[in-house]
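Quick start: read one record
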Amino acid sequence: MAHLVETMAYAGQVPWHGLGTAVDGNMSPQEMLVAAGIDWTVSKRPAYTINKPNCWNIVDPTGEANKVLSACGEDYVPFQNAEVMDFFKKFTDAGQMSMETAGSLKEGKDIWGLAKLTDKFSLGGDDEVKGYLLLNNSHQVGKAMTIMFTPIRVVCNNTLTQAMSMEGNRFRVLHLQ
């Protein structure tokens, strides 16, 4: 299953894989968080090992048996899913965007939120181009939180990979103190 979708919610057209929960296109980011099934938190816990001091694990305490999502160092700072989705609030409240999709991939290791821009344009008169603001956050060491504009409607790992591989400006936030 190349889509790697664990949970998701979407407004509008059903994704190609047919997975997820259909929602109203006017949901707030926090409502989308709940509908997408990503209303959980992660914690950073010490990993007790003999040979490696100062080791930590990023854990999903709400998942099955405190599932370890990644190992990390002492300086790693996890971003919570609710904080990620809160990023969209000013834009959706102002009517400049509406929540389009959100979800969890790879058993909770990656989450995303996607908001559709209110404005769109046409190429050659008939080809309508929609724009989206994508926020991808990983609960894995070595991946920064990324914020970027994209013309790709992200609904799974395939479309997230395609969007993230595009040339262009992006803002990255490292998980470090």
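The helical segments are 29-35, 81-86, 89-93, 157-164.
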